[in-house]
Specification:
Largest sheet: 6 strands, mixed
Low-confidence stretches: 1-58, 63-118, 312-326, 636-642, 690-696
Radius of gyration: 40 Å
Shape: flat
Helix content: 10-25%
Distance between the termini: 73 Å
Oligomer: single chain
Number of strands: 35
Number of helices: 13
Structural class: alpha/beta
Length: about 800
């Protein structure tokens, strides 16, 4: 072992006697990190094994040496000859160097003992404490109070900092314990300090380092910001530009901006340039809306701008006559000119764009043009989620052809404003024409794209079929009566093939015109919904067996056996790979169909599912922003943790949530003994839980537009016809106790890789697609158990409103 003591390194062998005297020349800093040499203590014959500190770094450097070692450390074991720097080695100055294979000392170049005269006084031992880590702004305490003098002499202390490191604000250099504030740094920085202690005759030194990291600034919520103006006053007309910046350096100002002048909105970026053309005082205000947890909060800052009268003896009044002082009045504003245009006709179901970009402002001011569109005739389309009445080029989906001139002629008026004056209205008319439906433009939103199955052995099922097709205007030719057991919700595989699967295949093959336009199959009221492999193995696939509707997604007899299920070529994950193309009939394989199921404990409750769906589909008002998308995507008790990765990433992703109010998320906890009620849940996505689904998960208050409930729950859709059997599975609870319009559930033990992706469901519905399309494109495989229970024709014409 080598130790730097005084002016020279010393070496010795086990068993040698070494005498030495400490050097009392001027102080010399000894820079050490987490390990300090033991030789100085050993040379002085101290019995305390003060060795190396390996404890985690703390804010104060002055831990007692005895607390800096673990009891199990080999350095404290006097019987362990193999341990480096054991207490026996320290007390006897026995060094492990230079021993032969028998353990006997071997000769070295310094066989003779080195003698020094200590003149009766032992040097003190400096201890500057352990190395530290801190952030800028933390209070640092350097503690040298554990320094000691073997003779018990009083000690004096002196600290100094390495001048090559960032200077700390030290005001006390001569105390055992000193304190300072860690300086502000932009990158990790090491500060070095040396402590010298003296007993009046001899002294020793020890060093300590402090690693300072930049402080982590957490931006406040709502975000705080400062607002500045290039100039706050001037002679009208004059321009002023405005900027905003964070209060704390590095703080985040992401969010939605809104600028206003005297209450009129004039901008939506983080800067503003505005012209003040008329004398007066103006209040300019900037507001930033940020997402704080699961709420949206705003903060506003304002400044007053003064526009003064033009320079001249008479100001505005004296200058008009030419002899009142030479003042020149500002020029009169020229009103802008609106220009509205669009295609002269649009086919029903297609998207049309109105165009106001041809509008103009002769004097280009005082502000940029703003747009205001209103509909003056025809079927109302202003509730369409694409329509923005303030956009230069708003869009809308053309309504269904009504064969009525008044309804099929859409009239729009455009008025533009330059901030001072409005233009006269300009008008444009568009004729809605009837679509010639081909396979390339046929979608599952068309009511005649569906085949409705009912049970001829149930009078209620026949009554439901007649009522259902009348609600949507589905042709009676798009129905098929099945000779199935109307009282059984679950049947055997053989019964399913004979009474449902084969009759559907044969019916479509026998009616090629119907097959050519059918995109979806609806398993109707009192048609069996689940099937077993056979009567002797009823639980092979779990408590509910396979789903009839999901097995009708691909009419392939070879795919009916577990665990075979073909992949869905039309599936996409909205977060990972957004897809803007809507499925049309020409893109679907001839034996692939979108499917859904409508069943219930009673006929009235089965009808209620469609009544709710139609109320949502025909409502032109946007969903209120307080009707939350409730999510529970984490369950610490779940093997493997988070399974709903897409939902979690969608929730966290800024781009997916643009604009910020597009998906008003709200967390809740769905597992445990006390479920949280969700009275205003437009959507509710609950986590996986094997048993004990509570009605409280879904019921709560009857308020709100309850659209869809979805839980990763085994056998959740097993007993759609009962709210009590099998502990009341979640599908009947959400639909009939909770009052929702639809539910996604499993009839067997779910394979999590095949679950419908909730982020895709939301994305498709936000695009205006139907519930049937959304769930179909969210499902990776034509799976054996997942199904939509609810009306597949449900759509949301107006998405969430801006809060």
């Amino acid at each position: 072992m080598d130790c730097d003591i005084g002016a020279r390194p010393l070496q010795g062998k086990k068993g040698e006697e070494v005498l030495f005297v400490a050097n009392s020349h001027g102080r010399r800093p000894l820079v050490r990190r987490s390990t300090r040499c033991l030789c100085a203590l050993a040379m002085l014959g101290l019995t305390s094994p003060w060795g190396c500190s390996t404890e985690p770094l703390i804010v104060s450097s002055g831990d007692s040496p005895a607390t800096q070692q673990d009891d199990s450390d080999s350095q404290q074991d006097p019987t362990n000859d193999d341990a480096q720097d054991s207490s026996g080695d320290i007390l006897g100055l026995s060094l492990d160097d230079d021993v032969d294979s028998n353990g006997d000392p071997t000769p070295t170049n310094n066989d003779d003992p080195i003698e020094f005269n200590n003149e009766g006084n032992a040097a003190p031992i400096a201890n500057a404490g352990t190395d530290l880590q801190a952030e800028s702004g933390d209070t640092i305490v350097l503690d040298g109070s554990t320094s000691a003098d073997p003779d018990g002499d009083p000690l004096t202390f002196e600290w100094f900092q390495d001048p090559d490191t960032v200077a700390a604000d030290l005001t006390d250099f001569e105390s055992a314990e000193i304190e300072f504030v860690a300086p502000n740094v932009n990158a990790e920085t090491v500060l070095l300090f040396t402590l010298t202690v003296s007993d009046g005759e001899m002294e020793s030194s020890d060093s300590v380092s402090v690693t300072v990291s930049p402080a982590v600034i957490e931006p406040p919520c709502p975000a705080e910001f400062l607002m500045t103006a290039a100039n706050t006053s001037g002679i009208a007309p004059f321009n002023s530009s405005f900027e905003v910046g964070p209060v704390e350096p590095g703080a985040n100002l992401l969010g939605e901006w809104e600028w206003s002048v005297d209450g009129d909105v004039v901008g939506d970026s983080n800067t503003l340039s505005h012209s003040f053309s008329v004398e007066g005082d103006y209040l300019v205000e900037a507001c930033l809306t940020t997402s704080c947890g699961f709420e949206f909060e705003s903060r506003c800052e304002s400044i007053v701008i003064t526009a003064e009268a033009p320079v001249g003896g008479g100001g505005f009044g004296g200058g008009f006559g030419g002899g009142g002082g030479g003042g020149t009045p500002p020029p009169a504003n020229v009103a802008p000119i609106a220009s509205a245009s669009a295609a002269s006709s649009v086919t029903e179901g297609n998207v049309l764009t109105l165009n106001g970009t041809g509008s103009s402002d002769p004097d280009s001011g005082p502000n940029a043009l703003t747009y205001s569109w209103t509909q003056a005739g025809g079927t109302d389309v202003t509730g369409d989620h694409l329509f923005d009445a303030t956009a230069a080029q708003p869009q809308f989906t053309a309504p269904a052809f009504a064969n009525d001139a008044a309804q099929d002629t859409l009239v729009f008026k455009l008025v533009v404003s330059d901030g001072a004056d409005q233009s006269p209205a300009d008008t444009v008319s568009i004729s809605v024409t009837q679509a010639v439906v081909t396979a390339a433009n046929r979608t599952a939103a068309m009511v005649d794209s569906w085949l409705v199955l009912y049970n001829v052995n149930s009078a209620d099922s026949i009554a439901w079929k007649d009522w259902y097709i009348a609600q949507w205007g589905i042709p009676s030719a798009n129905t098929l009566g099945l000779n199935a057991d109307a009282n059984a919700e679950r049947i055997t595989k053989t019964e399913m093939i004979n009474t449902i699967f084969t009759p559907v295949v044969n019916h479509l093959n026998a009616n090629p015109t119907l097959k050519a336009k059918t995109m979806g199959i609806l398993v109707g009221y009192r048609v069996p919904g689940n099937f077993y492999t056979d009567a002797n193995t009823p639980t092979l696939q779990g408590g509910g067996g396979w789903s009839v509707s999901s097995r009708l997604q691909k009419l392939d007899p070879g795919a009916l056996d577990f665990p075979k299920w073909p992949s869905n070529a039309h599936h996409f994950n909205a977060y990972f790979s957004p897809d803007t193309d809507r499925i049309n009939k020409s893109e679907m394989a001839a034996d692939v169909f979108i499917t859904a199921r409508i069943d219930a404990p009673t006929l009235a409750e089965a009808k209620a599912l469609t009544t709710r769906a139609r109320a949502i589909s025909t409502n032109s008002s946007a969903l209120p922003s307080n009707e939350w998308v409730y999510i529970d995507y984490d369950d610490p008790g779940s093997p493997g943790g988070d399974e709903w990765t897409g939902l979690r990433l969608a929730f966290e992703d800024v781009d997916f949530n643009t604009p910020a109010w597009k998906f008003p998320w709200k967390h809740f906890v769905s597992d445990g003994g006390s479920e949280e009620p969700t009275p205003n849940a437009a959507f509710q996505f609950s986590y996986y839980r094997l048993t004990g689904w509570q009605n409280g998960d879904w019921s709560g208050s009857a308020s709100g537009t309850k659209i869809l409930g979805y839980a990763m729950n085994s056998w959740g859709a097993t007993t759609v016809r009962s709210t009590t059997s099998h502990s009341g599975r979640y599908v009947p609870n959400v639909l009939f106790n909770g009052g929702y319009a639809g539910a996604i559930g499993a009839t067997g033990e779910p394979y999590l890789s095949t679950i419908p992706k909730p982020d895709t469901v939301l994305w498709c519905l936000a695009e205006g697609w139907t519930m049937g399309e959304a769930v179909f494109q969210a499902t990776p495989d034509h799976a054996w158990m997942w199904e939509l229970v609810g009306d597949p024709l449900l759509r949301i014409p107006a998405w969430f409103d801006k809060p």
